[in-house]
Amino acid sequence: MRISIEKPVWIMIIFTIAICLVGSASAADNDPKVKVEKPAGNFVALVNGVEISQVDLERKFKLIKERYASMGIPLDDTKLNEFKDNILKSLIEQEVMFQESVAQGIKIDPEEIKAELDNFKKQFETEAAFKKQITDMNYSEDAILSQIKQSKSIQMFIEQKVMPTISISEEAARAYFDTHPDEFKMPERVRVSHILLKVDPKASEASKAEILKKIEGIKSKLDNGEDFAKLAGENSDCPSSAKGGDLGFFGRGQMVKPFEEAAFALKAGEVSDVVETRFGYHIIKSQEKEISTTLAFDDIKEKLIARLQEDKFKEMFPSYIESLKAKYKIEIPGNESNASTEKASKE
Description:
The protein starts with 8 loop residues before the first helix and ends with a helix. A hairpin with a 2-residue loop joins β6 (about 275) and β7 (about 280-290). It is built from twelve helices and nine strands. The radius of gyration is 28 Å and the shape is extended. By secondary structure, the protein is α+β, with helices and mostly antiparallel strands. It has a four-stranded antiparallel beta sheet with strand order 5-4-7-6, with helices on both faces. The protein has a three-stranded antiparallel beta sheet with strand order 2-1-9. α1 (about 10-20) packs antiparallel against α6, α2 packs across α3 and α3 (about 75-105) packs across α6 (about 140-160). It has helices spanning about 10-20, 55-70, 75-105, 110-120, 125-135, 140-160, 170-180, 205-225, 230-235, 255-265, 295-325, 335-345, and strands spanning about 45, 50-55, 185, 190-200, 245-250, 275, 280-290, 295, 330. The protein folds into two domains: about 10-170 and about 300-345, Porin chaperone SurA, peptide-binding domain (Triger factor/SurA peptide-binding fold, Orthogonal Bundle); about 190-290, Chitinase A, domain 3 (Roll).
């Protein structure tokens, strides 16, 4: 079943526009509690007179190049120029949407902005590590605060001003439900606990035999009524030993084949014989089983309508952002044809 979405699609679009968490600041941002990073040096575009700095473009361009280099993917000059053009386009669109959000009266609580920054900092072990990272990337804390405000303002603008204009009827949702039955199937799942004794792939036959003898001894204790969770905590080499061996729920295709086959063959409460996988030897206990079912329309109606609304927004976004850009004077130095096109579209 694929109707559940971790983040609304408009948030993902914001992140696509922003390229990354930190970025350009806007002269339209005059909140004294959130200092705006002023563009340094030359600018690459103007949106209603607000500069998008060359520095900001180059920072994001550098991130893209480093990301592809880390994946071992070479980029020729044509591709690099294409990336740079796309980054500039995204920066312009981000600035347009931010200015529109301000014009529509969207305001963000400075405490929300600070909380987001604090959450971002939690990715780092220390404050010093955070500062070193942003310095190495040629960013500042002010730039991050400004970008957080921009992104949250755009998000709120879409939530409050754009999404309410997109209507999905219950009839349309029902039609989608009826024509996409596979999307609403809940696959069979099991919840198991296990005891794992790891075996090194390079272990000798004698070593393997010794480990096998040990896990067979544990199996004998289970057969004699000893507690599975207790034995898992005392013997298992899996991190799940801290939870009595509990692995939680999983579906087919998520575990190695021998483990999966044994787990799904058990009835709730049953304990397997010793199972060998490439990781070592296991004993598996089935805790719960969920059979494959199809969700009822009434149970997922509201989520489905929201998903279809988000899909419609995603579909309309390219034309929507172009119509929004037509309201703004966009100038790109050295590209007179582009600038005149933007002006003409406004007129």
